Amino acid sequence: MLIASHAFFATLPALFSAAGWQQPADSSFGTTDINAVMADGDLSYVAVGDEGKIGLSSNSGFTWSQVDSPFLGSNIFAAHYANNLFVAGGSTGKIATSTDGVSWTIRTVGFGASPVLGLSYIVNQGLWVAVGGSGKLATSSDAVSWVLRNSSFGVSFINDVYSSGNLTIAVGYDGKLATSTNGISWTQRTSSFVFDIIYDVSSSSGGSGYLAVGDLGKTAISSDGISWAQVFPDSSFGSSAIRTVSSNGELLVAGGSLGKIATSSAGVSWIQRDSTFENKTVKDIALLENSSVAVGDGGTIAYSV
């Protein structure tokens, strides 16, 4: 029995660790900053950045090519894939949608001059959520027609929004964090960031709670999204801003200033990895079950498989 058991466990595949990172030969963005990246769950990644650029990879980030963009040179800051739809958002409230990441149609979210900075999809509501500058927040059932909502952020910028299905969380400037059960009505919570910027929020590993990240290397955890506690010791980022965090249910990957990327199994203890970004800021990370892509300043892309 002991021999048979040992043989069985020897065949189990190793869990993806995102420990090693490489850069593609050509990101296709030149030196243009890349602000966000999304994945369709099937090895395809779409990255978006300044000057309206959109890049596509169909092989886990190994190679990239530019596609025609409807943003006409204006910056793109946000990207999210859900419900068989790629959605990107950027300057002056512009939104674009695509079913394949190649052909895009421009929309408008009604933010006026304010940018779209974050996007998410609430599965059990069938509702898209867009957030951005000056506390703007809007919802849509199809990512085409949008309705402005009261975000509870006042005029504070909202950097990103995340939905677990049962709870949606928006985070932003002045340490503000708000939750919603339906994407329409929002309630401010005490984040533990005081007045420091919160850049991103995600589910924690295992889906048992939430993790928020932000300025000065700060992280905070919550079991319910309502009560938050700052994590000590620090995240291994020192005083560097953590700009992004992503989870695949088994692993957390975070990135930020000075090219830092770190991984964690629970959001408490972190291991710094060699990101290959040098000192360029990591702006966003998309994480799948067996691969991950990080994007950032200077047209930098790195992949881990």
Annotated CATH architecture: 7 Propeller
Topology pattern, helix = H, strand = E? HEEEEEEEEEEEEEEEEEEEEEEEEEEE
- Quaternary arrangement of the chains shown? single chain
The domain tally reads 1
CATH superfamily: YVTN repeat-like/Quinoprotein amine dehydrogenase
Structural class: mainly beta
**Main β-sheet: number of strands, strand sense, barrel status?**
4 strands, antiparallel
Distance between the termini: 34 Å
- Beta fraction: 35-45%
Please state the overall shape, judged from the principal axes of the Cα atoms.
globular
Q: In which order are the strands of the major sheet placed?
A: 1-2-3-4
Low confidence ranges: 1-10
**Rg calculated over all Cα atoms:** 18 Å
Task: Bin the helical content.
Answer: under 10%
Number of helical regions: 1
Look at the structure and give the mean pLDDT: 94
How many β strands by DSSP? 27
Output the CATH class name: Mainly Beta
